[in-house]
Amino acid sequence: MRAQQYRLQSVSLAAPYDRNLEITGMKKALLVVMIVVLALVSGVTAFAQDTEATIADIVVASAGAEAPEFTVLLAAVQAADPAVLEALSNPDAGLTVFAPTDAAFASAFEALGVTAEDVLADTAALTDILLYHVVPGVFNAEAVVALNGAVIGTALYDTALAISVEGETVSVNDANVVVADVTAANGVVHVIDSVLLPPAEEEMMEEGMAEEDMTSMGTIADVVIASAGAEAPEFTTLLAAVQAADPSVLETLTNGGPFTVFAPTDAAFAAALEALGVTAEDLLGNTELLTSILAYHVVPGYFSAETVVAVAAVEGGVRVATLLPGTAVTVIAGEAGVTVDSANVVVTDVTADNGIIHVIDGVLLPPADM
Fold it and tell me: Which numeric CATH code is attached to 25-202?
């Protein structure tokens, strides 16, 4: 996750058309853009009608269509680490993919002075680039727009994308979304007009991450269960909450990811219940509310403490998207430590196979209008 300033782009894809006026050169150009976008919409969404189709199925079908799209993306997925295709093919994955068009790839190759063959031959770099286009969790267009000014974690460890909205234009870093909400059995695809390039320092971070993974105690769910059953138990209320919430929460913490979880201590839950004037039984009995609260503690992507401090040490901190659609927590790093909304981070970097846990001393409550 990097604190970067991204240029807001305002590109109109449509303009009023008066049949009684002479069409100027600019209007002709705008009409051409509209036709291209409409063709792209019809070509891509035609393959999303089957709700059983996975993201991988949609890419394959679109690449083989009469008016093909995603041919370079398909070649990239096939040339990358097999784990990429496996994730996009998993019907239970729950992913959001920002998919560059063929034209986007062509422009990127020209700008970088490389050929498609050069990129496809570098498996490691190609895999990183593709993972940087994948967000763990399903975020439709409405949820993405609600994240204006926030960042959202990706499947590439310690990286995030910046979301900005200006008028009707939604941008992801410097790429514009040209087609939204192509639904799949395992998530959603948003088509973009540029290739997203991860930070150059990513390789060093992955090397550090590999060492941390060696001490992992299983999945995030496994870590919570083990801690609750330890001689000096912790996370007993968190475990009870996960078990009482919608089953998708446990499924996510067991099989999804990578995720960063801000995990409240038992004392944090006790203080929150007292402040709210409710009992644990009251909270555990409200499945919908409980599920929303837990989702608000889970952030897509893997963010180590080092990355969190580096990014959140700016004035006002940084807003980071959570798995509760349309919401973001505010993370601030200062001399006194790191806060997430109003909670303090008290223990960092508890690693798991599918992410990382940072322990907090307060329960995070989502916005009242959610």
Answer: 2.30.180.10
